[in-house]
Amino acid sequence: MTETWKGIWVDGCKAAWPICMGYVPIGLAFGVLAQKAGLQPWQIGMMSLFVFAGSSQFIAVSMLSSGASVAAIAMTTLVVNLRHFLMSSSLAVHLQGSSWKFLTAFAYGVTDESFAVNMAKFRSEEWGKERALVVNQTANAAWVLSTVIGGYGGEFIPAGSFGIDYALSAMFLALVVFQLRGRIYVMTGLAAGVLAVILALLLPGNSYVVIASLLAATFGFWLRRYARGRKAIHA
Asked: Which of 96, 100, 131, 135 has its CA 20 to 30 A from that of 153?
């Protein structure tokens, strides 16, 4: 039976609602911080709409508050968001045959959270690319709306009332835990953490995040190939 868009939309929204619930407090907190940094609610909304990258937006607002140049902000956020190349390459396997218009809309909505949810769905059940797109865009709408509301409420909400540092750390830790589906994943995650700490002590800025991710991903790829080779020998 041909699937209806209503069914696709409902399934996508069901999968996206935990992301939206997580985005709301963090988006409100970002709106407050951005308002304290001098941005108007409409500017906050446009930033969320065009950037749609929580960590980069927090970094950009922090750098704006410290008087950093536009070039420095752009370069820093670019480096932080390079991880999206890795996520997009993993998702591309499930998007074969899609038009460039669909890929453009889909790529726009890829975040750490939507990536984790969609990858888990693709691996565990029949999950079409249309449902994955709904996840991306529903999360996007929740993020943009919550940041704008936070911007309007910035004058009345203390900037530190959401415990934002812990909320962001907790979100990323939860995403990591959901991806640990075996020893190789655990070892790759540990390698990424250790490398990130070491590189953070040696390198300035946020480049250590991307470098640690690439090195850990390479290490995990080598581990998987090694494990498959040993399995083939003993087969």
From this structure: 135
